């Protein structure tokens, strides 16, 4: 069971989004300091109760995903991601030909070597195609989330999108996943233990 996967017992509570004073974006009526990150981005408030219910493999738990991404932790086991002098190990679900050198955006946190091997054998979408990379440089890009707009009856979702840091829509976004840009990376052969 991947560390970042959501369980059926971890449902978002009834947390209505409200307009912030001065129409400066959205927030929660009973907002707490942990609802926003250091950039002031509002995050989905999902209870963290791993093991409660059944695994929902297609869903990502926003807090655990963010912790793995920001802390360079393995998305499968939650331990440290594999790091060598060449960089941190990432698995991307794209053909190598589609990678954009200097600007590859991903919502998938890095992995440790043992979990990388397990993931490419067990994960249905990685079995079809994946590329392993060592990234020596990466930066916070933005977030994936629900983008709201203000209406006379309150804020309403109008898009689900990747929103870049600095984008004016960020104050109108309830984030669910942290996005990174891999700016300097090398494609590796995962079966080669020297890479």
From TrEMBL:
It comes from the Bacteria. This is Uncharacterized protein. It comes from Actinacidiphila cocklensis.
């Amino acid at each position: 069971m991947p560390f970042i996967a959501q369980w059926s017992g971890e449902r978002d509570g009834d947390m209505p989004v409200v307009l912030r004073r001065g129409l400066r974006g959205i927030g929660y009526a009973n907002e707490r300091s942990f609802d926003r990150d250091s950039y002031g981005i509002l995050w989905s408030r999902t209870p963290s109760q791993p093991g409660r219910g059944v695994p929902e493999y297609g869903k990502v738990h926003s807090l655990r995903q963010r912790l793995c991404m920001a802390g360079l932790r393995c998305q499968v086991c939650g331990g440290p991601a594999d790091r060598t002098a060449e960089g941190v190990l990432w698995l991307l679900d794209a053909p190598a030909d589609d990678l954009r050198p200097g600007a590859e955006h991903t919502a998938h946190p890095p992995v440790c070597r043992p979990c990388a091997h397990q993931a490419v054998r067990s994960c249905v979408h990685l079995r079809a195609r994946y590329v392993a990379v060592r990234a020596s440089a990466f930066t916070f890009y933005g977030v994936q989330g629900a983008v709201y707009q203000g209406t006379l009856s309150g804020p309403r979702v109008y898009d689900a999108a990747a929103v870049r840091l600095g984008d004016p829509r960020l104050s109108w976004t309830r984030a669910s996943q942290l996005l990174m840009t891999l700016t300097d990376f090398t494609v590796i052969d995962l079966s080669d233990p020297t890479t």
